[in-house]
Queue: 4 jobs
Job 1
Amino acid sequence: MGANQKRESGTSMEIHEEPLHPPTFELATLSDPGTSRPDNEDSCGTFVEGPQSVVFAVADGVGGYEGGEVASAMAIDITLGAYRKSPREWGPAKRLYRAFQSANIEIHNRALAVPELRRMATTLTAVAIEGGSVNAAHVGDCRLYLVRGGAITQITKDHTMVAERVRMGLMSEARARTHPDRSTLLRSVGRDLIVSVDRITMALERDDALVLCSDGLHSVLNDSEIARMVRGTTAAQVCRALVDAANRRGTADNLTVAVFRMLSDRSEAPAPGWRERLKHLLSRHG
């Protein structure tokens, strides 16, 4: 479960190469400042726990350069660190949710303690995959897409004022893409002590791809363009193609993307902790 990292001119790429033969998945991430900003307030990270178990996350900070950069970096570091330290017996859904809430509390407390960071917050979308089963936790307007058989589906819901108006039928999707308030968040990590987190569970199939990206990318590339770039190439090449395409459009924001490909059939192996749960059930009936 090796990782290659490359950093150039504010751009960072991470590629995970599975040593199994055949490999069960491939994963790559890429973060770039974009064409209009000198600094990058986006953050991303990965944690590979085993040959069929991986966590990856993307965060987009808000609250000005210093606050946004600190908030997004904290969100990734704390979420992945808390997940890593949590008991595997909890299962990925509980581990991810607890880790997500830990990040929210620590960012909130840091903002209260440091006057210069008092307005900081961040979006955060984190995905835990175990044996082909997906558990995701989401706050904000980063997007998780599923690409299956050439069709693309947005799995997450944007927590923005404009997206809410679209869902209520008060605004068209075409108008929403160019509306000046399209990035105004209704929910973010760190702003309040307790945050409402969207929790998503789904199963993957062989050859499925997941694309997780910040709004700097999905605000300038439409869904069909993203789906088209996913086909017939590696996860790292998809990341590069998406970022380069968004930069050619002159995106006004930082942009970050993670691409996961399912290369094997979904494992039907029992989830971690099954022995302990079986012992508990037997002891109750013994």
Note: The CA atoms of residues 121 and 191 lie 6 Å apart.
Job 2
Amino acid sequence: MTLPSNFGRAFDLSGLGKTPAASPAPSVGKQVTAANLASEFVTLSKTKVVIVLCWSSRSPESLTVLDILGKLQATDGDKWVLGSVNVDAEAQVATALQVRTVPYAIALVGEQIIPLFEQSYPEAQIRAVIDKVLSIAAEQGLGSPVEEVMEPEEEEAFAALEAADYPRAEAAYKKLLDRRPNDQFAKLGLAQTQLLIRTKGKDLEVFAKEASAQPKNLDLQIQCADCEMMAGTVDAAFNRLLQCVRDFGGEEQARAKTHLLDLFLLVDPADARLVKARSALASALF
């Protein structure tokens, strides 16, 4: 499996200075500041992989990625450490890390920065990137290698996603599901890929205005919900389609319900937002 084109570029942090700074601690990961980046996180990278996510409260996508990384780190235990940088509060750190946009993820391995990605990705892709970083680190004597067991169709899908060839990725996941119809990873990958296809080149702000002006246009409501989902505003997407289920009848209600169920596939079954939406859907239908 190949990684994003910017994966593997390394920059030395040995000359980074220390400037005291204070900012509100984020709810996920350990707060990275100008005061502790070199002394704590770079030093820690000598013995353990450190993943750092640069985010902003103005970017819902970056907050979604931060939540995903927090979930993955909790699953992996002490295999790696998650650091988070609020770029609005830590401009000096953002400059030192050459942050151009958020979300922006890097790895610290052996006091070196490895840029990972600078856009939002589905959880499955982020999982694959983290596993690759852990494998690279293991080759340098940090931790144990991660055993990667991937089906050929998964390899093809990841390569296509990294090349932004979403139709090819969709076809690969469908091939895998033809062979393994109960593969939950493939179902999730297909749902995420199809969302990328449906939202490519679409502006949430534009669709939000049009959907607000035409509440009885189901196509607009569905497209807007897709854009909201892609932006990480899960509640907004669910509530929009739940309202459609309530407002429409017959075939249109069935379409709204089916699309809502498709979006449900993109959220962890234990997520409180999903549990609430499922209950609301049942109430709306019965």
Note: The first helix runs from residue 37 to 44.
Job 3
Amino acid sequence: MSPLLEVDGLKKHFPIHTGVFSRTSGQVYAVDGISFHIDRGETLGLVGESGCGKSTAGRTLLKLLEPTGGKIRVRGEDITDLDQDRMLPYRRQMQMIYQDPYASLNPRMSAGDIVGEPLIIHRVGTPGERRERVAGLFERVGLRPELTRAYPHEFSGGQRQRIGIARALALSPELIVGDEPVSALDVSIQAQIINLLMDLQNEYQLSYLFVAHDLAVVEHISDRVAVMYLGRIVEMTDKTSLFETPLHPYTEALLSAVPIPKYGARDRKRVILTGDVPSPINPPPGCHFHTRCPYAMARCRHKAPLLREIQPGHWASCHLHDAGVRFPLAKPGSE
């Protein structure tokens, strides 16, 4: 059985226009050739620092942004070059939950109209059936059905995000992209929303691409995790392998900054990266991470490492594996 979603060499570059005549003077390499797949009922966590291209990758694979290069396949069918009309059937199967529950809801529409709008656009059911569907979705996400007549300003942040989840569920999609859906919420509310998403996944056999920078949240909800740095995926494996035995120096640094006692990170040596993240307008040659990597070698500065399978099911892009260096580099308790 083919994966629900396959992304192969996906790129999204934004042109930089300058001057009176808006000439193109450069490119922002937001997403620079990433590949992954998501199986039915699976959650892939996509993590990395702010500005690494996570959200752009999510929006591009949904065709909310047109890709610059690469391929996007849904159930084995190539949707990369489809126009808006031919994309409409796929829109029903792929939905998004946005990061900001305050900016993602139209303040001029009632909550019920917001959740029911996708049903109208796709001409699903009669007006009565749509009202019944919306009321059922409100109950399913933990909101009282009578709140369908209220407006977004009458809800708290957590309630607004529940409305966003109900809207995403309206068309019974197979894939939902969560663009940091809990980062703007209080910690106690985050747990409620995460548990709701996991319950909905079990109930409806949903697949998630969960974009986040909070590793503890990703560890809780994901089956596999992909780590991005400056537009590229540098490591990808199941969550247990990633947290126990990271195979890329950048992943190791991320994990050392966020202690997760379950995986013994309390005892892991702290890895402090020097310098700032390079600009995606002018990324470094070779391995993008070599300017901040404490283990960089000469080849890292001019040759980009390929993302390859280092251990069964564990992919990483690092020249250290070619040199026979053993991972993890900062062993627990080392100084």
Note: The chain has a mean pLDDT of 90.
Job 4
Amino acid sequence: MNKKIFIIVLITIMVLCILIAGVIRIRKANSEDRENTLIIGLDDSFPPYGFRNENNEIEGLDVDLAKAVGEKIGKKVKFQPISWASKEQELNNGNIDCIWNGFAYSPDRAKTMTLSKKYLKGEMYFMLKGNSNIKSQDELVGKKIGVQSGSVQEADLENSTFGTQVEIIPYSDFLIACLDLETGGIDAVYTSSIYGNYIIESKNKDYRTIPSYDISNASGTVIAFKLGNVELKEKIENALEQLEKEGKLEEVSMKWLGSSMIKLQEE
């Protein structure tokens, strides 16, 4: 090998080494950044839990809680909008660390995910246009009922006797269902009172509600983790317990719900 070729080979090796070292540093930095970041999956159109404001920023009740927890456990918090219909897949693939967005407890969900203690409870009801003459659940038989695809409301309706007597219309999110309600595409939206009351009061909507019965299996709002991830569950619960003692949970509740409703429950 003559001297010129040797120099070229040497320079090439040096450049490759520099490039490889750079890639290693970037991967290490990315790995460390991932370890120090809590990625939360949410539906960014589900007030008051998580939604986009007029500046396209994600805010809400669960957003405030998650940020406070992030400070407690020393992690940055990243909010990742996801398709609600594929939330379990996002969790199982490791794309998100938890689902924290008005996520209702149900026995079926407890079989496939690790769930936190319940911290908020609302009733399930039907939301109708203000001028609707429907007065009870029984009068909804044969009508079109809107739900969010992948929600506990959809699952409970599908598994109930009442659900076989109505036409269940799934939507990508509840806001779209409400828009269709206003235009007469459906007769009612089956949803949580926490969501419904917030929409009615904050948006000054001309909706009215009627109670539901013999449908819901939900018993409170929880945070969902990949099945078996008890370590992260307990870390977040411990942080919430500290925040509860400090009055932060009540502060967030008063801000978004107008009353003290957030309380970490015993399992």
Note: The chain has nine helices and 13 strands.
